[in-house]
Design a protein that fits this description.
Strands 3, 6, 7, 8 and 9 form a five-stranded antiparallel beta sheet that branches. A five-stranded parallel beta sheet has the order 10-13-16-20-21. The protein has nine helices and 21 strands. It is of the alpha+beta class.
Length: 370
Amino acid sequence: MTGASWLTDYDIYLFREGEHFRLYDKLGAHVRTVRGEKGACFAVWAPNAERVSVIGEFNGWDPAAHPLKVREDGSGIWEGFVPGVEPGAAYKYHVVSRYNGYRVDKGDPFAFYWEASPRTASRVWDLAYEWGDGEWMALRPKRNALGRPISIYEVHLGSWRRVPGEGNRCLSYREIAPYLAEYAKEMGFTHVEILPVTEHPFYGSWGYQTLGYFAPTSRYGTPQDFMYLVDHLHQNGIGVILDWVPSHFPTDEHGLAFFDGTHLYEYADPRKGLHPDWDSYIFNYGRHEVVAFLISSAFFWLDRYHVDGLRVDAVASMLYLDYSRREGEWVPNVYGGRENLEAIAFIQRFNEAVHQEFPGILTVAEESTE
């Protein structure tokens, strides 16, 4: 494996401070040319790992073939360049923990594309796309202004329209684009709100059990196909809001859970880190690197996919430490209260960052308490 790093000292500083909001440019898998060789750079955060390697179709899923090298700056990031890897190649990270002999094959937290469920590998992908929505983007701040009327149509892409003559299959992103644009215009909607398209293993969750925070689900097509859907809606005067779930994530072994043999992304104490209703993990909002991961996900959809707004799901479960818990099943904050102060600080930072960087976008909270 050829050594290569695309992370600067400043990148590492911002990451450790929880202030790097474009991590998708540096972590994950990126098609590159290094010293004249085409291939892919890989970088993954696993500070409690003893060894990390890239396994995939290109090396027969052999953990010994392409080990990554841990950075010497204490960031816990492992990285390396694998020649010959092309877009579309399936891969995972083989992680050997420092603790308890734990080893596991993990999907990439920053993957741009995943295999179709029930398969669980990530795919190397290039996000190149030629957008045609320049007029919409230029006028977006006016279209989304507080004084403008907004009418939102909520839609789950997989169930909104089917093809009965072909096994009742779902439409692809490209197939649904003209139908959804026509319907929204005909009914007088200014925006569509799409239930989560972030990649998810269990289809019955409608996307609310997210694992791929940087990938549109492959159930309906490629990342470029989803870009086409957004682009087409914009060209027809329709804004796009995505449901986004920074509140919890599923416990599937190939995902974020217990990533390096420790509770890396989630709170370790189950009274704070395990959601009793959904049997899912709750993000550790007190960890700077996790905050950077989540806000980078928000930036990613606004930046690379031209999305016009994010509807943040399950905010109540983030705000209150006693949400769906009986007495004795939750841990008070430092003042003895029920508010999750770390989650509140995260939401505030998220709103500040996205509105500063992307003027004219919408952020909406789904909050079920009174």
